[in-house]
Amino acid sequence: MISKETIFMYTASAIVVLFTVVYLYYKNIYSYWKKLGVYHLEPTFFFGNAKDRVLFKKSFHEFHRDLYFKFKGHRYAGYYLGRRASLVILDPDIIKCIMIKDFNHFTDRQTMKFRTSEYISEMLINLKGSKWKRMRGQLTPAFTSGKLRTMEHLVDICCNNMSDFLNENIKSEQGYELEMKDFFGKFTLDVIATCAFGVESNSLKDENGGFASRVSKFASLSIMKRLSLYIVLLFMPGIARFVPLSFFNMEVIHFLANVIKEAKKFRQSTGQKRNDFLQLLLDSETDLDKNDKNKSKDDVLTEAQVVAQSVLFLIAGFETSSTLLTFTCYELAINQTIQVKLREEICSVLKRYNGKCSYEAMQEMPLLDMVLMETLRMHPPVAQLERVSTQDYTLPDSNLLLKKGMTVQIPVIGLHYDPEYYPDPYKFEPNRFSPDEKAKRSHYVFLPFGTGPRNCIGLRFALMSTKRGMVHLLKDFSINLSSQMTVPYEYSKHSMLLKAKDGIRLSFNKLSE
Ligand code: HEM
C-alpha cells in the first residue's frame, strides 16, 4: 500500500514539473522578439502585455493608443497579446508596403475559427486568400458610384423620417434630448435595410424599436462569454475550432438571417426585382447567367453565403456609420462656431440647388467633408487594422524576416493622435483636412477605412449616407450638449468598438425660420 507521504511527494513533484514546463514554455515564447532583436515591451507571465485589456482596465481604443506611444520613435515594435507575438508597424512607408505594394503577402486578417455558424465563417471580413478575392470581386459592383446614386432618394426618405421625428418631439425651447448612438443606430439601420435589401422600416417611429433594438445587440455578450473568448483567443487559440463561441450574439445573427431569407422568398415568389445589393447576390446565387462559359461553379453563391454577406453589411455598416454620426454631432455641439459655419455652407449650397440635396450639391460642401474626416481622426470606430503574413516576408529596409502566419497591426488610433502628423491632436480642427494640409502628410497616417485592396468596401456608401444625414439635421436643427453630458466622454472598457461609457447625450432645437 502506498503511504500518504508518498502520494504527497508524487503530487508535489508533479505540480513542480507542471509549473516548470509551463514556465519554460512561456519563457521560450516570450523570448521571440528578443531573439529577433526587435524593440518590444517586457511581457508579464500569462498575460503578455495585454493584462489591462483582459481585465477590462483600459478600453480597446486607449489600450492601442497607449501602445503606440510606448513604441513611438521606432519604425516597428513587438508585443505579446497573451501568448501571441504581434508586430506593430509605425512607419507610414512600411504601412504602405504591407497594405498595398506587397499586399499579396498580406491578403488575410487574423481570424479565430470557432466552431460556429456558416453565417460567420462565410462573411467577407473573415474570408482568406483566393476565396476572399473571389467574393470581394462579386460584391464590389454593388458599391459603384452609379449604384450609389440610385440609392440617394432612399436615404433621403430615411432623413425625412428622422427630421419628422425630431419635429414631433421638440415641444419646448429647452429642446429635445437624446442618446445619440441609439438615435443614429435606428436611422442607420433603416438606411442600410432599405438601400441594400428593400426592407422598409421606420425604426424611430416604432415605439418598441423592434428591429433596431434587436440588431443593436449584435455584439452584446455576457461577461462570461466575453471572458471565455479572451481566454481562448489569448491563451488557447488552438482549441478555438472545438469551442462553440462567437464574437457576435448568435440570436441576433439568426434573427437577421431570417429577415434576409423572408425578403428573398418574397422576391422569388412575386418575381419582383430591385436594383439593390440583395438582388446582386440573388442573381449570383441562382446563376441567371448559366450560359456564360466564363462562369465556373465557384462563381455561384450558396444561400448561406448570400445570407452571410447580407448580415455582415447590416452590422458592419450599422455600427460604424452610427458611431460617425454620433461623434460628428458631439464635436459640433462642443464647437459651436464650426457648427454655425457648416450650417452656412449647407444652406447656401442648398439655396443654389432650389433646396434639393442632389448629388452635385453634395460635391460642393467641402467643410462637411472636412468635419467628417476630422471626426474620424479623433473618433475612429476601428482602432487598429490587422493583416497576417501569408508567406515569409522581409520587412523593407531591415533584416527582419516575418515568418508566414505572423500578425502585423496598423495602429490607426495612435497615428491619428500623433502630434508629429496632427499638432495639438486633442483639438477638433477640420482644417487639417483641407487639400493643402493633406498634401503635407503621408496618406498612411489617416486610416479610418483601412487602405488597399482589403479596405472598407462600404466607404463610399457610408460617406454618402452620413453626409446626407448631417445635411438634413443641420439645415433645420441646432445641436447642443445636454446638461447631463460630461466632456470629454469616458470610453467604454467592455467594447472593442468605439463607445462612450455613459452614452452621448445631446439636445436638438428647431431653428427659427
Ligand atoms: C463610417 C463608416 C465605416 C467605417 C469607419 C468603416 C471602417 C472599416 C474598416 C477600418 C475596415 C477594415 C479595413 C482594412 O482592414 O483595411 C472595414 C472593412 C469592411 N467594411 Fe467598413 N466601415 C464603415 C462603413 C461600412 C459600411 C456602410 C459597410 C457596408 C455597407 C461596411 C462594410 C465593410 C466590410 C464588408 C468590410 C470587410 C472588407 C473585406 O474584408 O474585404 N463598412 N470597414
Automatic annotation (TrEMBL):
It is a peripheral membrane protein. It holds the Pfam family p450. InterPro entries: Cyt_P450, Cyt_P450_CS, Cyt_P450_E_grp-IV, Cyt_P450_sf, Insect_CytP450_Detox. GO terms for molecular function: heme binding; iron ion binding; monooxygenase activity; oxidoreductase activity, acting on paired donors, with incorporation or reduction of molecular oxygen. It is found in: Endoplasmic reticulum membrane; Microsome membrane. The chain crosses the membrane at residues 6-26, 227-248. Its main location: endoplasmic reticulum. Heme binds at residue 456. CDD domains: CYP6-like (cd11056). Belongs to the cytochrome P450 family. This is Cytochrome P450 6k1-like. It comes from Aphis craccivora.
